[in-house]
## 1
Amino acid sequence: MTSQRVSVVEKILSANDQLAEQNRRILDEAGVFSVNLMASPGAGKTSLILKTIEKLAPTFRVGVIEGDTAPVTIDADKIVAAGMPAVQINTGGDCHLDAVMIGNALPSLPLAEIDLLIVENVGNLVCPAAFSLGTHANILIASVPEGDDKPYKYPNIYRGIDALILNKTDLLPYVPFDIDYFKQGVQILNPNAAFFPLSCKTNEGVSTWTGWLSSRIRHIG
Amino acid sequence: MHELAVTESILNIALEHAKRANAKQVTQLHLVIGNLSSIVDDSVQFYWDTISQGTMCEGAQLSFERIPARLTCQECGTTYTLDSELTLCPQCNSGRVKIVSGEEFRLDSIEIES
């Protein structure tokens, strides 16, 4: 019996990353721009998706993958009621979506007929950050009632995002939320992320977000 | 929470490299984890003890090399280490800083018997 040390030097989630690349190729070939929408529970993921569909519907068709930990179709039903195709992934208690789940869901969507795919990740600020899905952009929704310290407490999820939405800005007069302190944390972690303060309730700021998204969709389509 | 998926990946990578090296047994794994990676060592160890059973990796020790989160200020060039909370440059109070380490998340090497 001989002992030896074998060099490995491999990223721990490299298998997931490879499958994510495969998902990206499928989406690129179909000409579908895709986003991975992450947030804590209750930040307004489904509200933002519905608002986004409402604004984009005259121009673009939107498909949605809904990730949930339990076998409920509350969110997917709302999307279908808005006239857009939706697929529900039940993670069976898992706290995040991964590239395998997305790869399995893609064949259930009419990719040739849609321009934008929105993946609603499981509501969680820790685990989704570690798993690439293969989408073109990672978007995080923070919301005013969650508090201004979230970038400091959950730095990981702020690191890999392309755009940051701050939802429920209509509550700023009523909730102690220091927006400068919040933005300072974001600046340290990810100075290049686009920033969209908005309110799904009053519509303030929503068109700036959908304008940004539209330009990205046109770029790929 | 996602440590099970992470531990399964560690096992798969270790088994693949062990097989390639014609190993009979894996005795140790050297993991390099940055302090900004949201991974709890004890939780990985807990899952490891369960899922490695019946494989070439059963009984192998996990060693965690933790890499501190280090930031460099883009204004004054100061490099500092984060102890816990994210902070501005301690020298000039600037937020224009760059994370230079602390995001490592890899299996560096394994020790095998063949």
## 2
Amino acid sequence: MATPVQPFSPDDLKRRRRRSIALALALLAVVAIFFVSTLVRLGGNVAERAL
Amino acid sequence: MTTGNAHTTTGLAATSGGQGTAGDFFALLKPRVMSLVIFTAVVGLFAAPSSIHPWMGFVTILCIALGAGASGALNMWYDADIDAIMKRTAKRPVPSGAIEPGEALGFGLALAVASVLMLGLLVNVASAALLAFTIFFYVVVYTMGLKRRTAQNIVIGGAAGAFPPMVAWTAVTGTIDPGSIALFMLIFMWTPPHFWALALFREGDYEKAGVPMLPNVAGRAETKKQILIYSLLLVPTIAAPLLTGTTGLLYAAGAVVLTIKFLVDAVAVYRASSRDAEDKTTKRLFGFSILWLFALFALILAEKLIGIAPVGGLL
């Protein structure tokens, strides 16, 4: 008979939650970096484009 | 009824991986190595002859740091077997079991792709290509190719650690210039005496793991000779940033003093006759070599911040 599968302990779940939060923060940082970099690269040119 | 976590009732065993903390993943990035990479890259950014928007400079450094972290994670994935044997590396996240090898591989690959893409999309393609080559060089050429095969591993592999200021310089100029090659050479020529000093007092560790470092392949006497030769080669190397018109007199004065001290320490290693004396002198050289590199790059940065003009370069 196969060994019964051990469920995740509360500690495991806590660690996983912290990893998820770290990943979410990293993704938010990437979004912010792309947003600010776009503003910086466009600069004043965005107001001078042909309409 | 839902539990909000299917794995608690159905799936993976708690010990089957995925249990590392965010801190374990951070350790995969080799933060101490990364700090030196960040510092030398910042100097490369300031030393370049033109300027970059501060935000884009920040993005450049971030991408280089992430690329260095990716290299570290991929190195730890591949080297987990020998890391487990060596005292210095046995507590790293993969050999200690905190992170599964597959997780380290996935994390490293994701970071490598993300850092190169970000640098290419947001800054310029030339620097991104150079960053991609740096990661490839460290992981494939050094870690997978050279490290376990030849005692010259760190002579060639040292190039990987020397690229970051060049990547930063290229982010500013879009080109590879003699000045950026001069910064590359400072780190490239510094690497062998620095690591061979470490290998001399950690010889047993490398031997146990089967890594062919110079002391356990060619012997301690030959290693001490090679340390001295490479230390002497630092003399023309410190002149390179002057010859390329990258640095000025503050750097020149500091570099001469620091390199004389480096040579004195290297000679002491060469002349050490007992094992005790060898241990003492190699540890001193190893410690000073870190200060030497840090101080040289700090002098270059100080010159740029103060506004000291470079001396007329010949190249």
## 3
Amino acid sequence: MSVDTGGRRAAQALLQASERLGPPPDLGRLRRRRRRRAAGRATLAFAAVLVAVAVAVAGRAVPGLDRVVPDPAAPAAAPPPGNPGPDTIDVGPADASELAAGASGLWLLNHHNDRGNELVRVDPGGLRVTARIEIGSSASTPAVGEDGSLFAVRPRNGTRPDRPELVRVDPATNRVAATFVLPSASRPYGVTGLVATRGMVWVAYPGRGLVRVDPAARTTREFTAGGRLVGVDRLAVAGGRLWAANGRELHRVDPRDGTVEATVGDRDLRAAMPPAALAGGAGGLWVHGFGPDGERLLRLDPASGRVQAVTALSERTDGRLVQVDLGADDRVVAIRSGSRLLLADPDQGAVSAAMPAPGTRGAGMAVRAGVIWLSDPAKGRLVRIGPAVLGRP
Amino acid sequence: MRGTEGAEVAHPKGADAVVVRLPERFEQFYEREYHRVVGFAYALAGSWEAAEDASQEAFLRAHRDWGRVGHLDQPGAWVRRVAANLAISAFRRRLAEARALVHLAARRQPDPPLRPEAVDFWRAVRSLPSRQRQAVALFYLEDWPTADIARFLGCTETTVRGHLHRGRAALARRLGEGWEKA
């Protein structure tokens, strides 16, 4: 046998053996294990330092899961010293953050690699933090329902993202009021889309159909529509309909019964698939994708599914490595692409303004009542961009 | 709603075309590459425990910095490089094996069986000098062309061909009768 033949057989045997080790371990569990090991090594090497740390940790109150921590010292309208402007709220640094806005105000979900995630409720009028809620490790994807409830998804037992549960935070008490078991995912990764509309919550995650939770009736139902709703990873509500995109197609879904009413077959849209982001607002469905000419924004008529406008964005963005956010309400359509914030004309989709965006990686964006909110997790702040700024050319 | 993935948009000066590259999602990358990276790390370390340990650490680092790593031309090469550095660290290997001994009873499953001739082959590969070992492992396990191996090792293709030539010759010698250099 030649070395080449033997080598290829040995390689094949090695790869087969490797696959017998089982599926790749859950990343969250890995992270925790690493942290424990790191802590163990630190214990051996720096016993004296550890004692000091232990004393410090022991002296600190550790809030329990779901416990509300009032924040009496939260800054009111006047921002704390050192903040760059009057429309900035100090919310505490995080590794990443997500934003959701709705009837109950503004909610920021701060992700921490070294501890559980924290939900921060913000009064958008008073520019102050009104509550901090420990929502559990790995909670993500916040969305606000019509009644002001905050929904998010987290691993059911804190460690298994493939066994998720939906969490409802009651805006009246700022407490987790209910949890709803979601079907297990085929892969140990988190949800990719969550929207709340018409009293229902829709959740998308890999390897499953679209899951609808009725929080009032406490029922859960999965819709696959013959496979068309399997693998959906972007969701939005526009024109009273649910819009669901997978890697190849954009479907309009009737939220009453989960049926796919239509699939958009437009050439411009297909060129922009898979979308980086979807949003409903200003009477349209907005799709951000990457076509042959770079980043593009599409405006679709939610009634007909027709593409009404296609706007090239690349000349106005930084053209570097980007994270894309898309947000819209009745008056404002905003796109954050990397370090640039673009405003689009709500009717035509044309870019009407561009400005530097605070925060880049791991930052969140929300649009509500004509105001754009941007989080900057590295600096631990939330920035409000209101009409005074948006009104400038 | 946030787009959880980024995209690289390059605007070559004076060019009409715009090149767009969508980075893969980390989860897909992780699922696809995990076992191959563990196999590669095993080829270098000779211990499943050390291989899993090094691979997991490498993926965690990639995940932490996916905004940058995901946009590299070959994120898989980056992870393998980190895993290789970790796997061939003798101290780390001993540490992983010591942990394995301590937690032997708690292991979910025994090491996966590997055919004796495969065990012999990879043992012989591990006896090669470090860069020959990596070149040979990438050549057989990943079926990478010499250009990719050269990029991985940070050397020229000619050097890689030299590593492979000498590596194969050494393997033929060490594996003894019945084996010959191709």
